[in-house]
Amino acid sequence: FAVRMYYGRPGAPLETYLGNLGFELPPYENPGDFLLDLIAVTDDSVDASADGVRSAKSDDDNNTKDDDVEAARATPRTMMRETTVGRLVDDRRRDRDAILAAFPDSDGAAEARRDRDAATNAAAVVVKAGEGAAGDDQRQGSWPFQFSVLLSRALRYKLRDETVAATQISMGIVFALILGAVFFDTNKSVESVTNRIGAISFSVLLMAFIAFDVVILFPRERDLYRREARAGLHTASAFFQARCVAEVPSQLFAGFAYACVVYWMIGFQRDSQKFLVFLAVIELEVLTGTSVLIACGCLAKDFEGANNLATLFICLFLLFDGHYINNNAIPKGARWIKELNYLNHGISAIARNEFIGLGDLTCKDDTDDPDANCPFDNGGQVVDYYGFDEGTIAAYFWKLALIMLGWRAIAFLAFSNLYLD
Fold it and tell me: Given 3-state DSSP classes, what are the helix, strand and coil percentages for the chain, each rounded to the nearest 5?
């Protein structure tokens, strides 16, 4: 189709065009292939073809005794081969040059010139709509235009490699089913307090690192960014934001699937408003955890370094998440870790959402002994005991959002300034 467009009008028989130039199409030959065979010839390829013919002569010479070399060269067979080689070289070059010389006057050439002029005018419009910067920046469109183009490309990459998104979503559903089966239909006994906190802690940890693959996102694409940035195609912020946004849909869907399954299986409070709070915290944990992983990838030069950084932050934040050590017992010198710990804020927010309004707790399911020693009478006491009472749920939301934005800023600064050589 492309050959027909360039060497003749659409719908015009290509064999007619070639016939007018003196090239008769062999029987059962594809016209496009025949034309490409005629023109896809360089001087080097012609010489190589000639050398191939000459090599046969060389083999014959090597098989001839030294005393007979001069005589062999004078045989009619050798002289005919020399003539064939010369004719081959001349014919192929002549055919190529004839077709190329006729192209500027063809209908296809006129159409190609119109396409070129249209593309030039479109490029001028893009430059004019750009940010007006000097140098290479003049070749860039506006920031929204750059972002939309890069986002479209990144989304196409995601669609072509659906394995990563499918893995995240399936992992969220599978772990939700496992956790829901382990803590299925938790009752309101005192013993259930530990189970509820354990389920909440595991859920927050899992969602914070459900998209662990993003840790290699920017180390893997750093070379691509450097090449395109040197060409002045886009800014660092457009590239960074587009790649980050392209990852969001699959991440949020994985969190949504997990929350919808695990909340009702475990037997958290049967309240739609509390479920929505749980879902919102889970999704915010996904985005915040992803921000930390992206920052680790941007701060490191390669995957090994990014993996080491991510492991360090995981262990540090996990230790102070409010589950392994009571929030009220965290040393004063380490409380800054708690304030920066998105795992702690997520667990605290979900715990407050779950335990406040839970009602009275029973010591045991199989006894009504009023003298039984109950450490907690209701969910509010659980919140006070574990130190989940240091802020409202809305305050925890704000803390998570600020931490997410802070890590994204660190990631962008690292991406745009480190390892650019």
Answer: 75, 0, 25
User: Which residues, 6 or more positions from 138, have their beta carbon under 8 angstroms from its beta carbon?
Assistant: 127, 130, 132, 232
Higher pLDDT among residues 141 and 388, named by residue: 388
> pLDDT per residue over 112-156, tens digit each?
777 777 767 665 655 555 444 444 444 557 899 999 999 999 998
Helices 191-208/236-266 angle, 10° precision: 160
Distance CA 277, CA 269 (A): 12
Three-state DSSP class for residue 362: strand
pTM of the predicted model, to two decimals? 0.66
Question: Residue written as tokens 């994985």?
Answer: 254
What's the DSSP call for residue 306? H
Q: How far is CA 197 from the centre of its chain?
A: 35
Quick one: 321 exposed, middle or buried, by C-beta within 10 A (0-12, 13-18, 19+)? buried
| Nearest of 224, 216, 188 to residue 362 by alpha carbon | 188
pLDDT of residue 282 exceeding 90, the answer is yes
Alpha-carbon distances, residue 265 vs 58, 122, 178, 350 (angstroms): 83, 57, 10, 16
Distant-in-sequence, close-in-space partners of 214: CB < 8 Å, separation ≥ 6: 247, 290, 293, 294, 297
Share of residues in the chain with pLDDT > 70 (%):
78
Residues in the chain: 421
* Per-residue tokens: 271: 């309240």
- Residue pair 289/168 in contact (Cβ under 8 Å)? The answer is no
Backbone phi, then psi, for 181, in 5-degree steps?
A: -70, -40
In 3-state terms, what secondary structure has residue 360? Answer: strand
CB within 8 Å of 245: residues ≥ 6 apart: 151, 154
Query: How many angstroms separate the CA atoms of 112 and 27, rounded?
Result: 30
Q: What is the CA radius of gyration of the chain?
A: 36
Contact criterion met (CB below 8 Å) for 313 and 296: yes
Separation between Cα atoms, residue 71 and residue 92, nearest integer Å: 31
Two tokens at 62?
């090597």
Angle at 326 between CA 206 and CA 290, to 5 degrees: 25
Once rounded to an integer, what is the mean pLDDT over residues 372-386?
85
Distance CA 276, CA 282 (A): 10
Q: How far apart are CA 231 and CA 130, in angstroms?
A: 15
Question: Do 49 and 87 meet the contact criterion of CB atoms below 8 Å apart?
Answer: no
